[in-house]
Design goal:
Number of strands of chain A: 9
Number of helices of chain B: 5
Oligomer: heterodimer
Radius of gyration of chain A: 26 Å
Shape of chain A: elongated
Largest sheet of chain B: 5 strands, mixed
Helix content of chain B: 25-40%
Order of helices and strands of chain B: HEEEEHEHHHE
Strand order of the largest sheet of chain B: 4-3-2-5-6
CATH architecture of one domain in chain A: 2-Layer Sandwich
Number of helices of chain A: 4
Number of strands of chain B: 6
CATH class of one domain in chain A: Alpha Beta
Order of helices and strands of chain A: HEEEEHEEHEHEE
Strand content of chain A: 15-25%
Chain lengths: 153, 168
């Protein structure tokens, strides 16, 4: 029996994949540029001190960040050291409610294991740091990391 | 095309800073209204004071060098009652770090770093590790956890950060 044989029957219909790498790279760059690793602190500038006895914290989900530094816009916020949490400038009295809110977002079993990463500028006086520390004790957030970078001699 | 893409890729790899969560780890005491609730024997307290111009007094003597502080602190912690002026045992030994409200944070971190270094070294020595290796023990792993517990058994890291003075 004769089988139909057209002159195109052996050709496979293909889609050109030449542009695929371009598309992949475009997606890659799109995500690289738009991904924000963490809410960045917009209002304060600080340079964290250096130290040697550093510990790396593995339980990232438990970490809450509080920073202390000099406002970038000194005209608007003054030139005294201020406290910042969650992208907003706060006062010492706002720390306990802030920590409570952060604790609520954690699973029940790990609420009291919350870790506060305290990023303070190396030139701020201890007074404000100590005030923050006392508030954290009141809020029962007792694990603190004084952020520091590696000291290279 | 690929070259340009790789160039961009490498550019972003190099310029992106990933937030690191490293620093000096401290566990604060529970909140209490009476700050002087616990009284300790004088011999068990090793006093380090920093004033508002970042000058340090160690046991009422002017601070000399980090090497001396390291050696003296270590001797104090591991005294075990030998010297009647020094600590009774590591469990009772307390290092009291006291500052002024005007002390710079940088100086505080410097001293805290030095004092924690003493403890980490002691811990490391007890289980045959360096201070650096001890700090990077992964507590999720059973054998690391065992080492960690063995090192810390009987030698708690008693570094007290006292409330700063209002005035000099």
């Amino acid at each position: 029996m004769k089988v139909f044989k057209t002159k195109y029957s052996n050709r496979e219909a293909t889609i050109s994949t030449a542009a695929l790498p371009d598309i992949i790279f475009m997606l890659l760059f799109f995500f690289m540029v738009t991904t924000v690793l963490r809410k960045s602190d917009e209002n304060l500038k600080y340079k964290i001190p250096t130290a040697e006895q550093l510990k790396q914290i593995e339980q990232k989900s438990l970490i809450t960040q509080i920073s202390i530094g000099i406002p970038k816009e000194t005209g608007k916020y003054g030139s005294e050291p201020r406290i910042e949490a969650d992208g907003r400038l706060i006062t010492v009295d706002d720390i306990v409610p802030f920590i409570m809110k952060e604790k609520d977002e954690l699973p029940t079993y790990s609420r009291d294991q919350i870790i506060v990463l305290l990023k303070a500028d190396e030139d701020v006086p201890m007074g404000i740091v100590s005030d923050v520390k006392q508030e954290l004790r009141k809020a029962n957030a007792r694990r603190i990391i004084f952020a520091a970078s590696w000291k290279s001699n | 095309m690929a070259d340009i893409a790789f160039l961009l890729l490498i550019f972003f790899l190099v310029t992106t800073t990933i937030q690191t969560n490293q620093g000096l780890s401290v566990t604060l005491p529970p909140h209490s209204d009476d700050p002087d609730i616990a009284k300790f024997h004088e011999r068990n307290i090793y006093k380090v004071h920093i004033n508002s111009s970042d000058k340090v007094l160690v046991e009422n003597q002017p601070f000399e060098s980090f090497e001396k502080l390291h050696a003296d602190t270590k001797k104090f912690i591991l005294n075990n009652g030998e010297d009647p002026e020094s600590s009774e045992n590591p469990e009772k030994a307390i290092i009291s770090l006291k500052m002024n409200r005007g002390t710079h944070y940088k100086r505080f971190i410097e001293m805290m770093d030095a004092l924690q270094g003493v403890y980490y070294e002691i811990y490391g020595e007890r289980v045959g590790l360096t201070a650096q290796e001890f700090r990077s023990l992964n507590l999720q792993l059973a054998d690391h956890k065992a080492k960690y517990d063995r090192a810390r058994d009987g030698v708690p890291m008693n570094i007290s950060i006292a409330e700063p003075n209002k005035i000099n």
